[in-house]
Amino acid sequence: MTTVHSMEALGNKFVLIDAISQKVDPREELKLVENCANKFQFDQLLILEPPTQKSADVKLKIYNLDGSLAENCVNGIRATALYAFDENLVSGESFILQIENNEAHIAKLEADTFSVRMTSFDFSKSSCAVEESAKLQFIFENLDISFEPVSVGNPHAVIFQNNLPDKIPDIGATLQNSNIFKNGVNVGFVEIVNRQAINLRVVERGVGETLACGSGACAAVLSGVKNNLLKSPVLVNFKKGSLTVEVNLDEQWFNLTGEAKFIEKGIKINQ
């Protein structure tokens, strides 16, 4: 049996497995995704591991609901932070989390509120596995829709376009199925409230539309600031709450602040 924990960040649901405090066979991880999917409703499975980089305190592996690996999940990072502090896996009020070959610098601001700072972002086509010759637009129901690729460790397509049909999941799936992004993509739909506030919906790769997406929030603000549509810091509104994102393009960093919480601790499932 494996002990798992059900967690949430702005309605984005996670199942977390601590592979530091208990033994988890890497060969059985996809089976764990399947077993958890039979028991819980969740967006990503988070597995905590010992770090392989000397500078990091903890390593995070992220599985999407369909069993594919995700390179980043900033809401999942906050859930990981809550667990790591709660279980004393880290000391002090800050630590470094390894995700793939990147790092997130995490600070505890309140009991359930954390800031996540990262320095890896890229606006190039190649960073999102898009061919240089590809046009940054696609067609949905005879409507031309433009997007900007943004990598924040994982690939995003950011769309600033008003008056789209109320078919966000279908529009997102159309771009995801277009083969423009060779490794798949998370699609963010941005409605600008003012220069320091947006409403955001995200259709995630391997999941579908979710209630919130932390990396999508970062990608949207990075794109908006780059194109002089937004000014940092930006309040990013989702269906069940808000996040604050700060970016500095010159110094090459972005920072997200938000909450995370436990839904249920210590659940036993078959491995």
Radius of gyration: 18 Å
The helix fraction, in percent, is 10-25%
**How many separate structural domains?**
2
Low-confidence stretches: none
Strand percentage? 35-45%
* Strand-pairing-aware structural class: alpha+beta
Sheet of most strands: 17 strands, mixed
Average of per-residue pLDDT values: 94
Helix tally equals 4
User: Secondary-structure element sequence?
Assistant: EEHEEEHEEEEEEEHEEEHEEEE
CATH superfamily of the largest domain: Diaminopimelate Epimerase, Chain A, domain 1
Please tally the β strands and state the result. 19
CATH class of the largest domain, named: Alpha Beta
Shape: globular
Corresponding CATH architecture of the largest domain: Roll
Do you know the CATH topology of the largest domain? Diaminopimelate Epimerase, Chain A, domain 1
C-alpha termini separation: 6 Å
Report on the structure:
There is one protein chain. By secondary structure, this protein is α+β, with helices and mostly antiparallel strands. The chain has 2 domains: about 1-120 and about 260-270, Roll (Diaminopimelate Epimerase, Chain A, domain 1); about 125-250, Diaminopimelate Epimerase, Chain A, domain 1 (Roll), CATH 3.10.310. The chain has helices spanning about 30-40, 75-85, 170-175, 215-225, and strands at about 1-10, 10-20, 45-50, 60-65, 70, 95-100, 100-110, 115-120, 135-140, 145, 150, 155-160, 185-195, 195-205, 210, 235-240, 240-250, 255-260, 260-270. The strands form 2 sheets. The protein has a 17-stranded mixed beta sheet that branches. It has a two-stranded antiparallel ribbon with strand order 9-10. A hairpin with a 3-residue loop joins strand 11 and strand 12. The radius of gyration is 18 Å and the shape is globular. The termini are close together.
